Amino acid sequence: MELSVNIERWPLAGAFTISRGSKSEAVVVTAELRDGVLRGRGECVPYMRYGETPDGVVAAIEAVRPALRRGFDRNALQTVMPAGAARNALDCALWDLDAKQTGRRVDELAGLAAPKPLVTAYTISLADPVAMAEAAGRAASRPLLKVKLGGAGDDNKRIAAVRRAAPKAELIVDANEGWDDGNLAQNLAACAEAGVTLIEQPLPEGRDAALADLKRPIPICADESVHDRASLDALAGKYDAINIKLDKTGGLTEALALAADAEQRGFGIMVGCMVATSLAMAPAMLVAQRARVVDLDGPLLLAKDRPDGLRYVGSLAYPPTLALWG
Predict the structure, then answer these.
(1) Coil, strand, or helix at residue 187?
(2) For residue 31, what are the CA distances in angstroms to 41, 55, 190, 211, 320?
(3) What is the spatial distance between Cα 52 and Cα 43, in angstroms, rounded to a whole number?
(4) Where in the chain is the domain with CATH 3.20.20.120?
(5) Annotated catalytic, 168?
(6) Confidence (pTM)
(7) What's the CA gap between 161 and 129, in Å, rounded?
(8) Are strands 21-34 and 2-18 parallel, antiparallel or unpaired?
(9) Which of 215, 245, 248, 304 is catalytic?
(10) Does residue 270 come out as left (phi exceeding 0), alpha (psi in the -120 to 50 range) or beta?
């Protein structure tokens, strides 16, 4: 197999802001594998939160070029690369190439039912309460809104303002590790008052022991605290659900295994994404079929998606076409 790797930059339709900062473009890395006739593609998002950079991810992918030429497969990939963005791009490219070589869809290869359209959350970026209310008002007709919190001081005002602007939408909250033991109870109470149905990662990874003793009015979902199956042991008693992202699991292969293992342990399933194009969303759609909450709105936040991208009708995301992936 021949490999090509590229860094791509996709402008956003507006600023995307969370507790750790703001950005105006999505920087992704794509891996493409060719067998001489057919090609398989995968896309990942290097994430500084986990020490990843675009150049570092490209180097990690390039390091396995000799093995790919010798006939590397997905099983071997799991043993020689750690979970993370680089493995995600290669794993998804291998699935895509396998599908094309066998003439079967990836869902068939994985023993899954054919994917169906799913309702995705739509993200309201962190800002002051007035700006967040305006953004929520523009998206008030969407059935599910994901509200970014974790800013200084005013999270109770932010969530109340969003609820007033979007009275009928289901709300989930993502604090991105932005709360602490001192404001946790107050913020949870504000979210309960607003009718929030799920809260992602309120406390920093590794400093979330307070969740074990917390009488919580709303289910708590691990995000930064969960990557792959090895993460699950540390979550028991602190979290009710996990957010599975392929850039954390290192691809579709581990994501499917993680979902099955988490369900056996009693965790609810959420499937999320980094801000990226439809090529990154396509494999996640397969894992999302078993999720209670789906957050695959990355392409909706871009100024322009790649050709043959996922079809979105409002908040309803449709499975990928063969022209895109799988």
Answers:
(1) helix
(2) 6, 13, 43, 39, 18
(3) 14
(4) 118-317
(5) no
(6) 0.96
(7) 6
(8) antiparallel
(9) 245
(10) beta
- Output the six-digit token pair for 7: 């860094």
Q: Is 245 assigned a catalytic role?
A: yes
Q: Which of 23, 100, 116, 148 is catalytic?
A: 148
The sign one gets for the Cα dihedral 147, 126, 285, 258 is negative
pLDDT tens by residue, 207-263? 999 999 888 889 999 999 999 999 999 999 999 999 999 999 999 999 999 999 999
Reply yes or no on whether the pLDDT at 151 is more than 80.
no
Mean pLDDT on 268-296: 98
Host H or E run for residue 31: strand 21-34
Could you read off the pLDDT of 183-202 as tens digits, one per residue?
A: 999 999 999 999 999 999 99
Contacts of 59 (CB under 8 A, 6+ apart): none
- CATH architecture group of domain 2-109: 2-Layer Sandwich (3.30)
251 Rama class: left (phi>0) / alpha (psi -120 to 50) / beta = left
Q: What CATH architecture applies to the domain 118-317?
A: Alpha-Beta Barrel (3.20)
